[in-house]
Amino acid sequence: MTVNHKIGGILLNIIVRSETIDDYHQIAQIHAMAFSNSSGMEEAALVSLHRNRRQHDPDLSLVAVHENQIIGHVLFHPRKVMVGGHGHKAVILAPIAVQPEYQNSGIGRKLIEEGLERAEMKGYAFSILLGHPSYYPRFGYQTNMFGICGIKIMLNESKEAANIVERKATCNDLGKLSDLWDQWFDDVDLAMYPGDDLTDWLSPDKKINCSVFEINNKFAGYVRYEKDQPENVKMFLATDKHAAQEILKTLSMQIDNQNAIFLPVHPESNKTIEVFQNEGQTDCKTWEAAMIRVLDKENKQIADYCNEVKNHQRLPGLLSWPVEFDVC
Fold it and tell me: Does residue 95 have a cis bond before it (omega within 30 degrees)?
């Protein structure tokens, strides 16, 4: 797609196209230059990590080009997301960057519009992002569509755990991880399936543990959490109530001066109710920056979710960000 833009009174010819391998270096430079509130290298790393996923689609990684130089980039990455008990094709918009001297000139708008059009043509039902609520609604994004949702569980005072082993997840665990994720999240709105590859379950951030737990040599669960602050849990899976209790005991040994932990499990999930039996304190709220843009206007499940959350008739879903976002 070719568009014309005026910048400083000068008419520029801008081409918006799919990225190619030869663009990777320039795209990284754009992200490094574009962000004043960070180094920009987090976003550059995020793009590279998403290219490693088997679901990466170069047609949804778009660049804006002027005189053979890339001046802007946006990435939409495909995901399977649950809504209404069914898996839907969705895309996350992140990140987007425009070279500083071309910012506020409509380049970002053209990249987003072209990306959304392509995603819709490819059959994606909706797009998700975290961003400025004063900017993205102009593209049809609705604010306050998700945020934080989980339960607060009191930690057992006992420091003695069963015969439990914590270790790194391996390829041999993938089938069990996938099955256990389904048990916890197949009935949870906005639950984002991690994927079928080992790299979908291991964080690129060395400060994050992605651990499988075994009790008496049997698979008992998986937890993704911060090493230095183990109370910050990003994903929690346990096979049953006993496994959950023992895993929490193990985590509690690493936590100082805290008698409770927040778990990112949906309070209305059947598995959450089975394991915790409504003993946790529910904490669910939306963020203005958490947005959804419906692409498939015929998808009633997505439309119902957005309308009911907006009208406070439904608890917001639980979106656990993929491991790639640990770098941001």
Answer: yes
**275-322 tens-digit pLDDT:** 999 888 999 999 999 999 999 999 999 999 999 999 999 999 999 999
- In tens, the pLDDT along 12-47 reads 689 999 999 999 999 999 999 997 776 668 999 999
Residue 274 phi, psi dihedral angles, 5° rounding: -65, -45
Tokens of 202: 């291991």
Domains of the chain in sequence order: 2-146+287-296 (3.40.630.30), 149-284 (3.40.630)
Q: Residue 222 contacts by C-beta under 8 Å, 6 or more apart in sequence?
A: 169, 173, 177, 180, 201, 210, 211, 212, 213, 235, 236, 237
What's the rounded Cα separation, in Å, for the pair 88 and 96?
Answer: 23
- The conformational region for residue 220 under phi > 0 = left, psi -120 to 50 = alpha, else beta, is alpha
CA-derived radius of gyration, the chain: 21
Q: In one letter, which amino acid is 280?
A: G
Using pLDDT thresholds of 50, 70 and 90, give the confidence band for residue 159: low
Residues 243, 215 contacting (CB under 8 angstroms): yes
- From CA 166, how far away is CA 215, in angstroms rounded? 9
Helix 41-51 × helix 24-34 angle, to 10° = 150
Measured over the CA atoms of residue 195, residue 61, residue 203 and residue 263, the dihedral's sign is negative
Tell me the pTM.
0.93
Q: Enter the tokens of residue 131.
A: 């961003």
Helix H segments across 231-310? 241-252, 270-276, 300-310
